[in-house]
Amino acid sequence: MKKVFKLAGGFMAGACIGFVGVIGVRVLVLGDSFDGLCSRFAETGILETAGISLLAILLLLLAIFLQVILHEGGHLVCGLATGYRFVSFRIFNLTLIRKDGKLCIKRFSIAGTGGQCLLTPPDRPLEDIPTVLYNLGGVLANLLTAILAAIPLLTADGLPYLLKFFLLMFSLVGILLALTNGIPIRMGGIGNDADNMRLLLKDKKSKQALVVQLRVNALVQEGIRVKDMPAEWFSRTEDTDYKDALQVTTALLSASRLLDREEWEAAYNAFDNIMSHRHEVIGLLVKETACELLFTALATNRTGRAEELYTKELDTYIRQYKDVMSSKQRILCALALYREKDAAKAKEIYETVCLRKNKYLMQGEVDSDIALMKSILTAGNAL
Fold it and tell me: Which residues is 88 bridged to in the sheet?
């Protein structure tokens, strides 16, 4: 019943937004009078008015979808033009990746993001790796296409009304995305494209962190585990700026490498150190740290700390991503084994991940998670 009310509420809200949008365009862009429009709508049937309003919403959603694709496409084109190599291209929860020389689509999503283009930086000295064009590519694409859409809107006569509406929405969305990514700001602690570019130009360590993360991401998608990557990539975490998400992510990768090597105590201490700075770290990375600290607390028999970490909020977060991130299934396996004392359930989770291995995006991460689950199940005589 709640879903029905939610759907009905969404329908009504969408119709209202579309109706207001239609009136706004006709008054502000096409020059119609407000009184004339009101009398015209009064003569129009309710169903016809609702249909026009919903069509306007669909056109707006189409404009948003296309501009998101263009934004990420801008990063892709500018990155490739400056020597980067393609890794993945995500729009909402659909991700295009290269696997065994072929392109394929998998499901993956990150809260708070509409898309993401990931590339591998060129094999050059750090100071010679370009970052400006790669970061601003999305802004340039949105701005350019917004201008191109506005030209016929302002100069051509006799365009169909719905086409004018779409061009206006497409242009406005493009300008909005260009501004929200082209002016350095942080939302929820996460810097936009311009803020990242500013940080990379100012701080050499942040640039090094980004380069490491892009290279790690590429190798993990190809099936390489972090324990098998060069140790020097993960060795510079002692003076981490915990307000910098790039540097914190590198510290998390370093801790994850310890975990992948099954250095349980060292991994626990590394995650615990990051967690001690949680008031400086952005929310998403705090949750990721809490997940891994929970796992290592369970594996090292720190029952009290595990109970402290395993909040309702963290449980919701784990289950939100369990179908797209094998690491969350690993944590559920540990909870079943250590907290619930249900070895059969833990083994079932492990076997399910093994069967679904090829459906996950990050193949190196899956191999690591399967190995870690096998290790704790074997130690607990569940395998």
Answer: 97, 118
- For helices 343-355 and 326-334, the axis angle rounded to 10 degrees is 170
In this prediction, residues 333-341 reach a mean pLDDT of 97
- Name residues whose C-beta falls within 8 Å of residue 274's C-beta, 6 or more positions apart in sequence: 242, 248, 251, 252, 255, 281, 285, 289
Q: Tell me if 7 is assigned to some domain.
A: yes
Digit-coded pLDDT (tens) for 198-254: 888 888 999 999 999 999 999 998 899 999 999 999 977 678 999 888 999 999 999
* Residues 149 and 231: beta-carbon distance below 8 Å: no
**Which two structure tokens, joined as six digits, stand for 211?**
């380069």
**pTM to 2 decimals?**
0.79
Domain count, the chain: 2
User: What's the CATH number where 233 sits?
Assistant: 1.25.40
The set of residues, in sequence order, having a beta carbon less than 8 Å from that of 135 and lying 6+ positions away, is 75, 193, 194, 196, 197, 200
Q: Quote the CA–CA distance of 222 and 218 in Å, as a whole number.
A: 6
Q: Which has the closest alpha carbon to 115: 71, 145, 77?
A: 71
Q: Note whether 262 and 358 are same-domain residues.
A: yes
Q: Residue 82: which residues within 8 A CB-CB, separation 6 or more? A: 122, 130, 133, 134
Q: How many CB atoms lie within 10 A of CB 211?
A: 21
**Distance of alpha carbon 8 from alpha carbon 149, whole angstroms:** 33
Q: What are the start-end ranges of the E strands in the chain? A: 85-91, 94-99, 102-107, 115-120, 186-187, 190-191
The answer to the question of residue 356 being in a domain is: yes
The residue segments making up the domain with residue 256 are 205-379
Q: Are 36 and 42 in contact (CB under 8 A)?
A: no
